[in-house]
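Input record (one chain):
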Amino acid sequence: MIQRLVHTSRRFIHIVLSSLLGALVVITALAVYELNKRPELKVWHKVVLDEEFSADSGLKDFGEYLALEERLFQQLDQQIYQKIDKDEQRAVNRYFRGSLSDPGRWPTNWNRSFVLPVEKPGIGVLLLHGMSDSPYSLRSIGQLLHGQGGYVIGMRVPGHGQAPSGLLNTTWEDMAAAVRLAMRELQEKAAGVSLYIVGYSNGGALAVQYTLDSLADESLKPVDGLILISPEIGISRIAALAKWQERLGHLLGLKKLAWNSLLPEYDPWKYGSFALNAGNQAYRITQEIQRQITALEKAGTLSRIPPILAFQSVVDNTVTAPALVNNLFYRLPAISPQQGSSNQINHELVLFDINRYAQIEPLMKENPSAWIDPLLKSNSPAFRLTLISNQSHENEQVIAASRMVGSSKVEKCNTGLSWPRDIYSLSHVALPIPPDDPVYGGDEADSSRGIDLGNIALRGEKGLLQVPSADMLRLRYNPFHSFLEQRMLVFMGLQPDPEKLCLARDSAVQAQVLLR
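The corresponding structure, as predicted from the sequence alone:
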């Protein structure tokens, strides 16, 4: 009797496991079928340019990096621009010479590294752009800092600015190795002055990673401050699964499976298609940052981390906004007061709230107040928190409300800014872009030499366009960019009067009532 029960149980378990395995095979086969139904790969998806930098390239300095980049862009022209099919010679295709999206329409190809030198620099600044992005995204900030006496290097991160295929094999270690070359160059050209890294998205992760490395490696030049814009500190764990789809595609010989998205290349300064490897590298570097922070905490050297100023939208579909708080700012030690200093610089997190006047909360999947409110009520001794939000739910005027270090009080001031009509929040891609940007700006945008992507709101039948309508409606500029600029200048010591950030300042109030 017992043997029969054991035999029956084993048979049942075998049937269940076989059924689950069969279901998994069917689901995987259907997923592979759907993924492989996507548009055919183009030359810019298939050709991998071998003049791209990698950690084992053996380059000695940034000059050699720029020389290699020159060869890379010659190769890009020969193997991609000159090889596109006739049916891809369209008015909107960045790889078709003369199209509205051709970077060659602009006097400067901002897909490439740029250097803005000064004879006697007051500061040195390295700009690091985001994943699938280009140096263009930080062009405006670079020009602002150059005008303030900064020696500025806007580095093209390896894998970027050329063809989307550049991100099929590039690793975060390749990117980090390039950052070291650029920092060595900046140290030489801006010797004796304060050095800063401005990092946007994945560039923010690279900035933090280099800074943590410099705390453990005395051969690396330390920085005096970090400015992070929508930094990639935490992303969804599902990104770690990307490598399995990629491996499955390699096993089956299905090259489309190496891509998360295959979209037209209509943007002159940013890839439309996104390689799965890029998401995997983003996940890997965020994990490395957490490992480094833990190691430095144990070694007692995290206290030497320089001041950090970060800007983040409370809603962000690319990076996890709460992770910036939990994985970085809550892990930062307080900065020790400088003896005799009357202008102590602390860590600061600036959050751009949703437009409360738009009354969008009932339509939102999640209300960011769920994590903002506890943050406002905390009295962290390590960082200052500033929320850019509506003066009240009844108007579009914008205030800056700051909770000071180690305090539960909030100091409010009128910024003189207001929410534009029909905009309910910022976005991941919006923060570093000013409203007058000729490609991504809004109503104030300067005239573009080519495509204008800032005010597109196409209307018609759904499912007709190759580009998802959500991408077209995504906000691409920051209406509060002037606040970001001024706050950044104060942080760097280039704007001595922080009062210029506000038109009027109110008395301190309890944090609990800020959003009520």
